[in-house]
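2024-03-11 09:14:02 INFO worker-7 job=invfold-0412 stage=load source=structure_tokens
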């Protein structure tokens, strides 16, 4: 009995692993979904790095500004939270083209990746405009 329990638990990590996917030439819908999610994950990682840079620039602006010009960092945080909510809602809406189908996850994560790359560029532009 103990051996059977051990075999059951020892097999768990195999179930937790993501299936392999050839993202250079995906052929199945599962591969396309996985690759689309990986693309979004990479875009989101780049966004988060740029957001931290932009937030630091806004914080520096607040530090160097007179009292009546402060609030740049708070405005950025508020805008980013609203933007994330917009992106996610917009992309869920976009996914309804294949709602309930195997393509829906790919449509959603592809939309998220696209909007995220655009937002990253906007944040970079904002950072540059703030003199950083």
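2024-03-11 09:14:09 INFO worker-7 stage=emit residues=132
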């Amino acid at each position: 009995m103990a051996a059977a329990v051990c075999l059951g638990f020892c097999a768990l990590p195999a179930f937790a692993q993501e299936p392999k996917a050839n993202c250079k030439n995906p052929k199945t819908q599962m591969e396309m979904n996985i690759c689309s999610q990986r693309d979004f994950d990479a875009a989101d990682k780049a966004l988060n790095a740029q957001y931290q840079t932009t937030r630091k620039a806004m914080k520096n602006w607040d530090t160097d500004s007179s009292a009546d010009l402060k609030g740049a960092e708070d405005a950025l945080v508020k805008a980013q939270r609203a933007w994330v909510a917009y992106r996610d809602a917009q992309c869920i809406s976009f996914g309804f083209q294949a709602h309930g189908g195997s393509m829906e996850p790919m449509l959603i994560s592809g939309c998220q990746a696209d909007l995220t790359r655009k937002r990253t560029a906007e944040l970079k532009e904002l950072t540059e405009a703030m003199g950083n």
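2024-03-11 09:14:09 INFO worker-7 stage=report msg="The two ends are 64 Å apart (CA to CA)."
2024-03-11 09:14:10 INFO worker-7 job finished
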